[in-house]
């Protein structure tokens, strides 16, 4: 009985030693030979996807900080005393601001919130659902314009706008992807927000303007594309 147990232990030890020898010496030796070179497996790093994801998140955070000062809040009191709230975007360093015409009904009083100040803007132009305002200022923060022709379904995007509370206006961010473009080039995303986000801006992860957010007849948030915005601005 003891002799059989001793034999089993010996075979077990020999097996372990043989396995280590084959793995550490024989296999590395033969794999370098021409006969095996075409079957060599290249080890691929498993951390690449995670690294790209981390870099993209860092880029998104940097972009949010970059565009923050170009976003303005808009509050309008209509002649029927209804309050409309939304956002706009500074598009030139000398004070041109773009927003939605829906936020500026005729004969209403509009206040713009920017840099902890309240400003009464001047309406320069209104066409369809886009409006151009002017505020006094120099060297104001602006952001770059995206290229509509380079946009792709599934592309990661984010929006930034101004929300209002009893304590005052504050900036809000949400992110998602582009779902599709309709026949009018309107941008549809998977981002859901309430109507307080009228006039908020849609950006790519580099912080370039892609569109201005509004709500369609179904109550879903969509973005007027950058191509129409540039045409409206004459850029």
Descriptive tags:
alpha+beta, 6-stranded antiparallel beta barrel, 235 residues, elongated, 4 helices, Thrombin, subunit H
Q: Per CATH, what is the topology?
A: Thrombin, subunit H
**SS-based class:** alpha+beta
Q: Which outline best applies?
A: elongated
Strands in their spatial order, largest beta sheet: 5-4-1-2-3-7-6
CATH C-level category: Mainly Beta
Query: Taking all residues together, what is the mean pLDDT?
Result: 84
Structure summary, number of beta strands:
13
Number of helical stretches of at least 4 residues: 4
What is the gist of this entry?
The protein has 235 residues and is an alpha+beta fold.
List the helices and strands and how they pair.
Blueprint: H1 2-31, H2 34-37, H3 48-67, E1 71-77, E2 83-90, E3 96-100, E4 109-114, E5 117-119, E6 122-127, E7 130-134, E8 156-165, E9 168-181, E10 187-189, E11 201-204, E12 209-215, E13 221-225, H4 226-233
């Amino acid at each position: 009985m003891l002799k059989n147990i001793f034999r089993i232990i010996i075979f077990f030890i020999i097996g372990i030693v043989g396995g280590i020898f084959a793995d550490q010496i024989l296999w590395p030796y033969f794999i370098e030979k021409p006969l095996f070179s075409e079957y060599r497996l290249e080890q691929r790093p498993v951390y690449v996807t995670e690294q790209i994801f981390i870099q993209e998140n860092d880029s998104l955070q940097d972009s949010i900080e970059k565009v923050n000062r170009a976003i303005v809040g808009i509050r309008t009191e209509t002649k029927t005393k209804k309050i409309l709230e939304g956002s706009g975007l500074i598009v030139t360093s000398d004070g041109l601001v773009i927003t939605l015409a829906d936020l500026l009904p005729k004969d209403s009083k509009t206040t713009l919130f920017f840099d902890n100040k309240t400003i009464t803007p001047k309406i320069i132009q209104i066409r369809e659902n886009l409006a151009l305002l002017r505020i006094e200022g120099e060297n104001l923060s602006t952001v770059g314009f995206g290229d509509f022709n380079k946009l792709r379904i599934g592309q990661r995007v984010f929006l930034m706008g101004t929300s209002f509370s009893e304590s005052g206006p504050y900036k809000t961010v949400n992110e998602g992807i582009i779902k599709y473009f309709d026949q009018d080039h309107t941008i549809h995303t998977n981002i859901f927000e309430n109507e307080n986000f009228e006039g908020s801006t849609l950006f790519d992860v580099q912080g370039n303007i892609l569109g201005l957010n509004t709500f369609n007849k179904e109550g879903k948030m969509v973005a007027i594309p950058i191509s129409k915005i540039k045409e409206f601005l004459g850029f």
